[in-house]
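I had to read the description of the data format several times before I understood it. The format is easy to grasp once an entry is in front of the reader. For illustration, here is how one protein appears when written out as sequence plus structure tokens:
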Amino acid sequence: MSSATAEKEKIYNARHYALGILVVVYTFNFIDRQILSILLEPVKNDLGLSDTAMGMLSGFAFAMFYATLGIPIARYADRSNRRNLIALALGIWSFFTALSGVAQNFWHLLAARIGVGVGEAGCSPPAHSMIADYYPADQRATALGIYSLGIPIGIMFGLFAGGWINELFGWRMAFFLVGVPGVLLAFLVRFTLAEPPRGLAEGRDDSGEQPSVRETLAYLWRKKSFRHMSFAAGLTAFVGYGFVTWAPAFLIRSFGMSTGEVGTWFGLLLGVAGGIGIVAGGWLADKFGAKDPKWYLWTTAIALVVMTPFNFLAYNAATATASILGMVVPVLLGNFYQATTFSQTQGISELRMRAVAAGILLFIINIIGLGFGPQIVGIVSDLLADTYGTQSLRYALLICSFVNIWAGYHYYVAGKYLKDDLVSEG
């Protein structure tokens, strides 16, 4: 065995460690991104802001920079060391999370949230590309599902830590205490994570030629599966981000829960049910998709339609317990889309466009989902406030939840075209 082959084998064997580290990084990504949701009420009251303004801080202020910068950063990742980029990005967003704690007004907090968005733009595109090089196609949805566990775990810890730190020390200390550890984690990433050769898991040779962003976008847009799949993911994220951002405020306003109580129970809901949903979605997609590729996406289409009636139970409940129990199925099934959407985007892409492909997908998801989701819920809540008062948020969330049916239709259509669009590997 040559030294080069031995080195590739060593890196391939280290893939589980790499995946574990990337899960931790992604966990911090969502802790820092979503901690504002549990702090919306205390921040709003302290700084004297409206629901629309808070929707801006939790939505567009973050999403505009996160999504837009993700593509050029992803292009850089497709031709450079992805591990170093992730480490740098982690340090930047963690610093700005800690800085959020000293904000004195809307504009200070806006600037800090933009900084978090800029840093987090350098996380997922290179991470998706690395995982695609570590894991072959028949294991990739499962691997990306495990990576995506950072979402519910991060949200769970962010809600739990943010809620109770706010109870004990105030919202400013909550930002500081969740931001600082990420800076230390950045050094662990930089000095212990291996950068895999491109095409390692598939035995494919990397030509070293990198298409431009325009060429990559044109390549993806020619594939009908990507058009429908990316739009469907954006619509699903629209509902999901609106829910994750505003449900804590809904539970506080409608049922009088404290931030600590919401952080504990809502955090457990998202962490446990959300985590099961992500892993189950990836596993089911791999299981059924191996027999017929359309089922990689049809599993998600079915899940989105099935979950819709349960939103009635969640948002029309008379007690906090009934509401949280009603959220279990929507949280579980609403996370099915994560792993398989990211996996199939890698599967239809060439080696040197994988990070950019992930960046383009995340741009679409985050502009539609993270940008519009929290913002539209906040606007609808303000519009309904004269009629429903403090209950306006429950109806805003219910109205926006129906977008999932639209998303399910596009996942169904995307599945019909997927087989012809996948890149042949090996």
